[in-house]
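Project standup — Tuesday

K.O.: blocked on the structure for the chain from last sprint. Re-posting the sequence here as requested.
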Amino acid sequence: MKTRFAVSLLTVFVLFLLSISVCGAANRVYVLTAPYATVADGVSELQWQRFWRGFRYGVPFGTLLADEETLADLRLLFGDPSPRTNIEITAAGEILRTAWECADCWAVIPFEELDLRWKVMEFAGTSPFSLDFDPENYLLGIPLPEGEASNFDPEKLTTLTLTGTTAMSRNLAYHIETDGLLVPVANIAETLAASDFTHISNEASFTPDCPPGNPLRREARFCSDPSYFALLEAVGTDVVELTGNHNLDWGPQPFLYSLDLYEQAGIKVYGGGLTQEEAQAPVLLEHNGNKIAIMGCNAIGPEGIWATKDHPGAALCDLEAMTEKILALKSEGWLPVVTFQHLEYVWYDVPPVQTHDFLKIARDAAPVIISGSQAHIPQGMTFIGETFIHYGLGNLLFDQMSDVERTSFFDRHYFYDGRYLGNQLETIILENYSQPRFLSPEERARFLDLIFDTCTWREAFAEE
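H.V.: unblocked you, prediction finished:
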C-alpha cells in the first residue's frame, strides 16, 4: 500500500487514538534546524517525503541529526524511514557542534533546545519563527497526554525587529509627495508591524519648516515633513533610535520637535536625547516575561552631533561605561541589545575600526545582540559565544539605488521565557528610489550566499 509518508496502518491507528485521547491538548513542538550560515530556508512536504524514503534528488541536505527520543517521535509521525535514509543518532548536547562541522547536516530538535547559532528552517511552509505559526496544525508537533504542558507557549514569546537606516528625505521625500504617502512601505508594513516591538533608526528629524521634497532636493542635509510620521505609524514603530549623524542637520529645534512627536505617539527613544545622560540611557521593554534592554551610541561623529550635559544630540560611544551598564542590566535579569552608529563603509566587508568596537563589547560584556544601524551597504554577521553580531543591516527607508546599496536586511529576533533564541533574517531590495520589496527566493539565495561568504565564525563556540 502506498501512502504519502510511508506511514504504516499501525502508525495511522496510533495517531488516531492519540487524537481522540488528547483532543484539544497541547503539542510537543520540534524544529527543523541547520547551521546559521545556511542559504536554504526549509523543505517542502515533498522534499521531506523524498528524504524519508531515502532519495536525495531535490533535497537541500544529506544527513539528519536527531537524538533517540526525537527520532522515536519522528517515526511516530512519519513511519519508519527507508534503510537508505541518512539519519545519525546524536546526543542532544552534541547536535549543534556536529551540524556545524558537517557539510550538509540538518537536525530536528525540541523547541526548548533552540540556540542562537541555529537557523530555524521552515517545514512545509512554516516554523516556530513564522509570524503566523500555529502549533496545533504544525507537522512537526506530537500530541501530548492530557494535562502535560507543551514545550511551546506563545505567552512566553516576544519578537523584536531591528532595522537599518531610515532617512525620509531627498529622493524618498520626492516620491512620498508624488506617489502617495504610504506607498514606500506598502510591501513591508504588515511584516514589520507584526513584531511585538519594531525598531526604527531614524536619521532625519521632523520639522514643519522642512522644505518640500517635490521638487527634488539632493543635498545631504536631511529633514522630514511631519506628515511623514505616518510611515512610522504604518510599520508599527515602538522604538526609535537617535544615534544617527543627521538628526541635527537643521539645528536642535527639529530634534526637540521630533522628541515631542515620539512622546505623543507613545514611541520610546534611545541613543539620543536632551542630554548626554538621557541619550545613553537604555530603553527597557517587558513583555510576556521577557525583559529586553536596548541601548545605542554614535562612535563616528562628527563632534557637533553628540549630546552633552546641556545640549541635545546623539549618545557618544563610551565602551567602558557601556560595558558596566550591560553587566549591571544582566545582573538584574535584563537581556541587553546594543546598536551602533559606526563607520559607513563602501563595500560588504567590515573594516577593522568597526569590528574592534563590536567585538570589544561582545567579549567584555556579552549582550545578546549587537547590531549596526549605520550601514547603507549590508554587512555580515557572526557569533561571539552567546552574542549575535550583525555588523550592518543596510537601508530600510532611504533612496540609494546603487547595486551594493539596494539590498538590505531587517532582523526579527526571538526571545522566549527569559532567553534569546535567535533570529529570522528578512531580505529586501529598493525599487524606484523609494519602495522596498521582499526578495524573491532566487534573489534571496544569491544575496545570502554573498553575505555569508564575507562572514567568519571562528568564535561561534568561544565559551565552550
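K.O.: great, moving the ticket to review. The chain is about 25% helix and 25% strand. The mean pLDDT is 94.
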